[in-house]
Specification:
Structural class: alpha+beta
Strand content: 25-35%
Mean pLDDT: 82
Largest sheet: 7 strands, mixed
Distance between the termini: 43 Å
Low-confidence stretches: 1-29, 205-222, 396-400
Helix content: 10-25%
Length: 400
């Protein structure tokens, strides 16, 4: 009986992850939100200090005040939920306003974990005063078009280039690398019509002529602004093939410079390359065991043939490559250096190292990032052993 009572109490209080969460008294549709300036006047441009009004069950007003973030819990998810409640489609930016507006406060430390859920699923604390108010910028025009530019500043004819975003006004700019990851790369490559994302890096050593025509044609050439910063996309959105607007968060105010611009390469490794194995005498093997060799499928790039470096190489990468060769899984893999074997030296010297940083995702078939500019030596060449279906364990899972 005591155990049952304890379990009931734990469930009622929401004890999890080492802390106790007591649901707030007023939640969900009991709130309305709007945006004001420093004087407390309503704004009409979708930007301002966030205010809220809290109602009791009988719709009497419990309190009115600003939304604060004392403990840095406010997130992009919370910003999007609230912007949608106000009547916009997305949140462009949010920040902490510490100018001390002297406006009364109402709630603090808002946490929302699901952008498709109403505010009733968000957590918050009640508060009377604070000096860390949320300043929010919402928008009804959230769509962006993405493209890649070559070294001349024109649209790239390949799958690589400087990543550029264009908004609904036709203004375009670069994308900063802050928080940019493989989920963001894959989502944006899909927006441009590609199936996979191959690699991305900041534009530290690229000589790109970042130019655009302004709307009034006053200048035909000037520096591009940085259009997007802190781009993050959800793993769930990637797995469900959601669009950039559905899956991603971003800011349109940036603290970056152009050395942090994203240079992106789209494309699927298995569409561009084929894999095989050779033995110590450089003879092709049919049992999926030996030195891993990669070569280009393109007839115009027949010279790209060589070994694979072990940088970032893991079980998912090994499984993906073994499956591409007709096997069920990878039984094992090691670098030549790990094997401490000099017996492979003669065959290794016949090939350059041509592929590195192969990082495949277990849950998205064919999604592998990679680099064709390896910084490796032959001690890092991959030796692999593939297996048949009866030799393979259950398929591994992975999250972003």
């Amino acid at each position: 009986m005591v155990l049952f009572a304890s379990l009931f109490l734990f469930g009622l209080l929401g004890i999890s992850d080492g802390y106790i969460y007591v649901p707030p008294k007023y939640t969900g549709s009991d709130f309305t939100f709007w945006l004001v300036n420093n004087n407390g006047d309503l704004t009409s441009n979708g930007a301002g200090i966030l205010k809220a009004k809290l109602y009791a069950d009988d719709r009497t007003i419990v309190g009115t005040g600003t939304v604060c973030d004392t403990d840095n819990r406010f997130t992009d998810e919370a910003a999007r939920v609230i912007c949608m409640m106000i009547g916009y489609k997305c949140a462009e930016n949010w920040k902490l306003d510490t100018t001390n507006t002297n406006l009364p406060a109402l709630i603090d430390n808002v946490e929302c974990t699901n952008t498709s859920a109403p505010f009733r699923d968000c957590r918050y604390d009640r508060i009377d005063t604070c000096n860390r108010e949320i300043s929010l910028k919402c928008s009804s025009r959230c769509d962006y078009e993405f493209s890649l530019l070559d070294s001349e500043g024109t649209k790239s004819k390949s799958k690589s280039g400087l990543l550029v975003a264009s908004n609904y006004n036709g203004m375009r700019g670069t994308v900063c690398d802050d928080n940019f990851d493989k989920a963001a790369a894959l989502t944006i490559c899909r927006e441009m019509g590609h199936t996979c994302a191959a690699s991305w890096s900041s534009r530290n050593d690229m000589d790109l002529e970042q130019t655009y025509d302004d709307s009034e044609k006053k200048a035909s050439e000037q520096d591009m602004p940085i259009m997007l910063d802190d781009v993050t996309c959800s793993a769930k959105g990637v797995l469900q093939n959601e669009t950039f607007v559905e899956s991603c968060f971003w800011k349109t105010e940036s603290d970056c410079d152009h050395s942090e611009d994203i240079y992106l390469t789209c494309g699927c490794m298995l569409e561009e390359f084929k894999f095989s194995t050779v033995d110590k005498n450089n003879k092709a093997t049919t049992n999926g065991k030996g030195l891993l060799i990669v070569e280009s499928k393109s007839e115009s790039d027949t010279e790209l043939k060589g070994t694979v470096c072990d940088d970032l190489f893991d079980e998912s990468s090994a499984d993906t490559i073994c499956k591409s060769m007709g096997f069920a899984c990878s039984k094992s893999f090691k670098s030549v250096g790990e094997r401490r074997s000099a017996a492979w030296g003669d065959v290794q010297r016949k090939y350059p190292v041509v592929l590195a940083e192969v990082d495949c995702h277990a849950q998205i078939q064919g999604q592998c990032s990679f680099s064709t500019d390896p910084i490796c030596d032959h001690s890092e060449d991959i030796l692999i052993k593939c297996g048949t279906e009866d030799q393979c364990p259950e398929t591994p899972t992975e999250s972003f």
